[in-house]
Amino acid sequence: MRRNRIIVTVLVLLALFSGIACAQGDREGKRIEYLITSVENLVGVKFVRNGKEYDGKQAAAHLRMKLKNTASMVHSAEDFIKICASKSYLSGKPYLIVFPNGRTVPSEVFFRQQLQEFDGKGAAPK
User: Fold this and answer.
1) What is the b/e burial string over 56-87, where b = at least 16 CB atoms within 10 angstroms of the residue's CB?
2) Is 109 contained in some domain?
């Protein structure tokens, strides 16, 4: 009888911990999707990768592909920024965001600002 109680307790604890991990994963997934969507919806902005300009939709498609290929290494939005959204894996060159007024910022800076906005508002991706 005591053994059954221990087994049930262990199973309940495992279920609780897996629920917490899923909730954490869901939150990080929402944060990452917010970042990707933030660049996808930019109008008139160019995403520069290895010296070539892309629009927001192309940039988002590239970032989603890169995320899919690095999923085992990306556990948080911060990991996503560092591993997927800051620089080229092949060349090591930083990604850039060029706004219509000519202002250029490293994508890492852009995505970190977007993440602060998301976390500050508790926003959900649109």
Assistant:
1) bebbbebbeebbeeeeeebeebebbbebbbbb
2) yes
Domain carrying residue 33: 26-121
Contacts of 48 (CB under 8 A, 6+ apart): 54, 95, 96, 97, 98, 104
The total of structural domains in the chain comes to: 1
pLDDT tens across the length of the chain (126 residues): 666 565 544 444 344 344 333 334 799 999 999 999 999 999 999 999 999 999 999 999 999 999 999 999 999 999 999 999 999 999 999 999 999 999 999 999 999 999 999 999 755 444
Asked, for residue 5, whether it belongs to a domain, the answer is no
Residue 107 maps to a domain: yes
Quick one: which of 80, 59, 57 has its CA closest to 68? 80
71: its two tokens: 């999923």
Question: Is 89 within the bounds of a domain?
Answer: yes
